Amino acid sequence: MKLITAVVKPHRLDEIKEALQAFGVQGLTVTEASGYGRQRGHTEVYRGAEYTVDLVPKIRIEVLVEDGDAEELIEVVVKAARTGKIGDGKVWSVPVDTAVRVRTGERGPDAL
Amino acid sequence: MPPGITTLAADKIELSAANTGFMLICSALVMLMTPGLAFFYGGMVRVKSTLNMLMMSFISLGIVTILWVLYGFSLAFGADVGSVIGWSSDYVGLSGIGITELWDGYTIPVYVFAVFQLMFAIITPALISGALADRVKFTAWALFVTLWVTVVYFPVAHWVWGSGGWLFEMGVIDFAGGTAVHINAGAAALGVILVIGKRVGFKKDPMRPHSLPLVMLGAGLLWFGWFGFNAGSWLGNDDGVGAVMFLNTQIATAAAMLAWLAYEKIRHGSFTTLGAASGAVAGLVAITPAGGSVSPLGAIAVGAIAGLLCAMAVGLKYKLGYDDSLDVIGVHLVGGVVGSLLVGFFATGGVQSDAKGLFYGGGFDQLGKQAVGVFAVLAYSLVVSALLAFVIDKAMGMRVPEDDEVSGIDQVEHAETAYDFSGAGGGSASRTAAPAPGLTDRAGAAKNKKVDA
């Protein structure tokens, strides 16, 4: 199994959700997050005093998938999240040892 | 405003219901400026000191009103004593004034004049508070307001507007308070912050305004109330001067807002909300002394010059290293000085007074008088305010402890916070005070029908 994590712009959430549903993903977890990438945040000016706002709002989407689906799913997320502008975010995957469905105790791919 | 000069030629001056009504409305408008100022300032501070900022303005409504009744009106507008102060025992406690007694040759009752001028006395110390954001003990501030209006505002109001006051007799033009209100408050702000020092983290920590909508709301209320401040300062409107003042107020404010925005677009790349609000206030400040002397085109010039210079001036605190938190010096002192001096250039002669400025053939005469007025009020207020702050600081300490300043002045000074961030239902707040009778247990609460729903 793989855990796909995407940290993306908040306003892309709906598109990503729809793309994942179309792909057949059953569930996902969304968290509000903040952070910055290489371009850093933005600058605000108050009466000439400039403030650099480093941490900009993001959302973090996490999905557990079977190994075979991981690559394709990453592509789906990337395509749905992309605006072409700076700050579009990142998507990555990590291997997962175990997953358990809490209600039934099912393990592995059955738990997804 | 010139007490002592009557605008009516009639031998017998009678109470004018129209002027009296007009002045009562103007007084109410000026009163609204103080809560407006509270929100203008309150939005500019960080979340943790919002309430303290609001309260520093609001308390002035309480303290100054009472002092005004007790002795303030007498000190400012009583019979002249040596050109520097007033005193009339009839005015003490406002006790010896008949309800139909008219003010000094005008068509309005003394009481109306007293209440109108009271509103000026209230907002002037409140203006100072913007420079002291986040760090001054509330009791020390209340004491400062009490002493400051007594030894600075009341005398200066007498100099500038009181019949026999030395600046008034010299012919300094201050229609509605450029020197007595704005230069006075701005110089006092500078005097106090030189004594108390900078906020913890000044120039290091971000100190962004927490609510620009509040700032805009406050600026809007100030703009609205300022019509009373300026148009009311002729103490009537049966000869059109009040209307000139109203018009010039609007014109200069608009010009100053546009000038500030243009400057910051060129200098910093954006038209900011705070810039629009600040530019408007700078224009209001600058037209205050000048509005009864300049033409509508002159008002555009006064506003635009003030907007530009104040926008440039607010950066000085970072260069020079004094922490004028919310730019009282950059906006009120600089704006007041600019407006007062521009009277010496743009006075057309023939509206408020016959005095003409440099551009209208009046030579340097009026400009020189204006400069004397500016310098005298600035120097007096700066020195005495610094002394007062020094004495209060020695006696009781002006500042809250550093830890309290960092954690937020609202909680330590007022036992409140401006906003509830505890999540849905405000669940994290727990009640520690003794519960009201009937709330000590569920059964008691159920039996007691008086429990608040």
Automatic annotation (TrEMBL), chain A:
This is Nitrogen regulatory protein P-II. InterPro entries: N-reg_PII (IPR002187), N-reg_PII-like_a/b (IPR011322), N-reg_PII/ATP_PRibTrfase_C (IPR015867), N-reg_PII_urydylation_site (IPR002332). Keywords: Nucleotide-binding, Phosphoprotein, Transcription, Transcription regulation. Homotrimer. It holds the Pfam family P-II. The modification O-UMP-tyrosine is found at Y51. One of its GO terms (biological process) is regulation of nitrogen utilization. GO terms for cellular component: cytosol. It comes from the Bacteria. The keyword Cytoplasm does not apply. The keyword Coiled coil does not apply. One of its GO terms (molecular function) is enzyme regulator activity.
From TrEMBL, chain B:
The keyword Cell membrane applies. It comes from the Bacteria. It is found in: Cell membrane. Residues 420-453 are annotated as: Disordered. The chain crosses the membrane at residues 20-41, 53-73, 108-128, 140-161, 181-200, 212-229, 241-263, 270-291, 297-316, 328-351, 371-392. GO terms for molecular function: ammonium channel activity. Residues 429-438 have a biased composition (Low complexity). InterPro entries: Ammonium/urea_transptr, Ammonium_transpt, Ammonium_transpt_CS, NH4_transpt_AmtB-like_dom. Homotrimer. Belongs to the ammonia transporter channel (TC 1.A.11.2) family. Involved in the uptake of ammonium/ammonia (NH(4)(+)/NH(3)). This is Ammonium transporter. It comes from Streptomyces agglomeratus.
